[in-house]
Specification:
A hairpin with a 3-residue loop joins β3 and β4. The chain folds into two domains: about 190 residues, Rhomboid-like fold; about 50 residues, no CATH class. Helix content is about 65%, strand content about 5%. α7 packs across α10 and α7 crosses α11. The chain starts with a helix and ends with a helix. It is mostly helical. It contains 13 helices and four strands.
């Protein structure tokens, strides 16, 4: 048992931000499974104080639920689907952005999605509670889609699909299912999608919400290592886009190699990269 815990601890420390978020979601799920099996009153108390209630009069006394609801899941299938989506979308997001930017979109996207749910629920007379990381994950998906809509993603049994097709499919499903069931959950997804779009628009105008988490890291990091000079986005000047380099016409060999890899991703999808190319791109984050 101790060896298992040590392996999990090492895996958490060595993992990237996506893997750490997966750990957090699984850890919360395990805690709730234990309480549900052995301490029902505690389980019900925690669910009531962690899930986001559509009743504003209840929410006003539990404002923290705007954050906590996204770490709780309704059942195993709900958790499993969100873990798979978080891993898939998170890897795509980290191809272009830093871990601080991913954390910003995930956390703030979840909050924005929750606020969308609260506002819409009062207009549509929805009386329910919502849980799950779907809104935050949709924010990540739509941030990638807004930034690189024509990027190819390789799906099993289907082949290469443009990422905006995937995003549009999920939006279509959510809109169609609002009148049918779980209206609050689908509205939350749409709120997360809207935030992902807004985030990229803000980023393009020079406002990066990820800097908040850079500041937190600098504040609490034991070794006080600074990350404030991270690149916002890796871009390709061939497409007429701005570069994060101080001088547009002075590309070093690293940036040239990054551009070649990004071109390959756009044409054939992330999975087309070799192991060496993936490792190289990972080291540039």
């Amino acid at each position: 048992m101790m060896e298992l815990l040590q392996n999990l601890k090492r895996g958490y420390k060595a993992g990237n931000i996506v893997q750490r978020l997966l750990y957090w979601n699984v850890a919360v799920a395990i805690i709730f499974i234990i309480f549900k099996a052995f301490y029902q009153p505690v389980y019900l108390f925690l669910v009531d104080n962690i899930s986001l209630n559509s009743n504003f009069e209840i929410f006003i006394y539990k404002p923290w639920t705007l954050i906590t609801y996204s770490f709780l899941h309704a059942d195993f299938i709900h958790l499993l689907f969100n873990l798979l989506m978080l891993y898939f979308v998170g890897m795509l997001f980290e191809t272009f952005f830093s871990k601080f930017q991913l954390l910003a979109v995930y956390v703030f996207g979840g909050i924005f999605a929750g606020m969308t749910y609260l506002i819409a629920s009062n207009f549509l007379d929805i009386n329910s509670q919502v849980v799950g990381a779907s809104g935050a994950i949709m924010a990540l998906l739509f941030a990638v889609t807004t930034y690189r809509p024509n990027m190819n993603v390789r799906l099993a049994l289907i082949g290469n699909v443009k990422v905006w097709y995937i995003a549009a499919f999920f939006v279509f499903l959510d809109i169609v299912q609002i009148p049918m069931s779980n209206a609050g959950g689908h509205i939350t997804h749409l709120g997360g999608a809207l935030f992902g779009f807004i985030y990229i628009q803000c980023l393009n105008k020079g406002f990066d919400m990820g800097k908040f988490f850079v500041w937190l890291n600098d504040l609490f990091s034991p070794n006080k290592k600074k990350y404030t000079n991270f690149k916002n986005v890796y871009t390709n000047n061939k497409n007429g886009q701005t570069s994060s380099q101080p001088k547009k016409n002075q590309k070093d060999e690293v940036q040239i190699q990054i551009d070649v890899i990004l071109d390959k991703i756009s044409k054939s999808g992330y999975e087309s990269l070799s192991k060496e190319e993936k490792e190289f791109l990972f080291k540039q984050r």
